[in-house]
Design a protein that fits this description.
This protein has a single domain, classed as Class I glutamine amidotransferase (GATase) domain (Rossmann fold). The chain is globular and about 45 Å long. The strands form 4 sheets. An 8-stranded mixed sheet has the order 2-1-3-4-14-11-10-7, with helices on both faces. Strands 5-9 form a two-stranded antiparallel ribbon. A two-stranded antiparallel ribbon has the order 6-8. With 350 residues, the protein is of the alpha/beta class. It contains 8 helices and 14 strands.
């Protein structure tokens, strides 16, 4: 679970500016036959990711390095999976950088403020703050990155986790408006503005209970099945499961947005209510003529966190729920989320 009332002020630990060490656990690489079906995207807009070069991905949190929190070191299995993938020539498909927010004396993270001038093709942004995350300058830098075609994945969690997404600039507003929070941009249906997870007394809505940490949820795919959710290595040919979490956030397609659609929904194990898991945004041109990159709005970063893939890797001390051991007992169930991750990394750069 992420924070809600757990921490209401910025962490007082000074950031180191360095990535945390990653797990040394060796995850087996996907079989070559499982990735040969995917063509490596050929970029034509001057970004890296051109023929013969790996797609460059930045995995980034919205908080400074804080040991007892959802810091970037808690997404090491995601990084390991992406780095394990090879193209038909045996070369890495992705070059991955992982980092926490590292503000300088001005209070701004210079990597984010200057993101448009970087070599990155994609930003996977994990909203783990309670409002003390991205600054306006950082939001403007991410907006400029998106306006030059950079792909975005914005994942948050329950209540107001990730609410600093609202500091992203105008060009990013359709993607940020897809996220509904407790104190800003709530879900338009007032009947949904209530607790779904009734067991976590210190967490408020939105908090859809898709299952325990360490377990997985059977998802419903919205027809036509989006390419992000295809898995030719599976007998069904599609992604059927994602890691579950006791209190996921809320996402939807913003009114008037024509280049986005909900592609998968979940179902609460408490109330039986369905809720959106993923919203996919196709490329579009803004009023200024900028070609905006593709984007994904995701209801919970827990689909991608180490603790949800393998609870043995631990979690912050404020997590109270006892995890399931289902994924530990049935690791093949992780194949679907790995297929989704691989698809996302390719799709966002294409």
């Amino acid at each position: 679970m992420g924070r809600a009332t757990h921490r209401l002020v910025a962490p007082n630990k000074e950031p180191s500016g360095e990535s945390l060490p990653y797990s040394s656990q060796d995850f087996s690489k996907q079989k070559q036959s499982e990735i040969q079906w995917r063509e490596k995207p050929q970029q034509t807009d001057g970004r890296l990711g051109n023929m013969g070069k790996p797609i460059r991905i930045l995995l980034q949190t919205t908080i400074p390095t804080t040991e007892d929190d959802w810091n970037i070191g808690r997404f090491s299995l995601l990084r390991s999976h992406l780095e394990s993938l090879k193209d038909e020539a045996g070369e890495p498909m992705f070059a991955v950088t992982s980092r926490d927010r590292t503000p300088d004396a001005s209070g701004n993270d210079q990597v984010l403020t200057n993101l448009a001038a970087s070599e990155y093709d994609e930003l996977w942004l994990f909203g783990v703050d309670c409002g003390d995350g991205l600054t306006a300058a950082e939001g403007a830098g991410i907006e400029a990155f998106h306006k030059r075609g950079g792909g975005l994945l914005l994942a948050r969690d329950h209540q107001d986790l990730g609410i600093s997404f609202s500091n992203l600039g105008t060009a990013c507003q359709p993607v940020t408006a897809a996220h509904h929070f407790h104190t800003a941009n709530p879900e338009p249906d007032p009947d949904r503005c209530c607790e779904d997870d009734i067991y976590a007394k210190n967490i408020s809505w939105p908090n859809y209970h898709s299952g325990d940490n360490g377990d997985c949820q059977k998802i419903a795919l919205v027809e036509p099945v989006h390419e992000l959710l295809k898995n030719p290595a599976s007998p069904s040919g599609v992604v059927e499961y994602l890691p579950s979490h006791p209190h996921e956030g809320a996402v939807s397609v913003p009114p008037g947005t024509t280049n986005a659609r909900v592609i998968a929904t979940g179902k609460s194990t408490v109330t039986g209510r369905t809720f959106n898991l993923l919203v996919a945004f196709e490329k579009t041109r803004d009023a200024e003529g900028n070609n905006l990159g593709r984007a994904i709005a995701e209801a919970s970063f827990h689909h991608l966190a180490d603790y949800n893939w393998n609870p043995d890797l631990g979690c912050p001390s404020f997590v109270e729920e006892k995890p399931s051991d289902r994924l530990k007992q049935e690791p093949k169930l992780l194949d679907d989320v790995k297929a989704y991750v691989t698809n996302a990394a390719l799709w966002l750069a294409s």
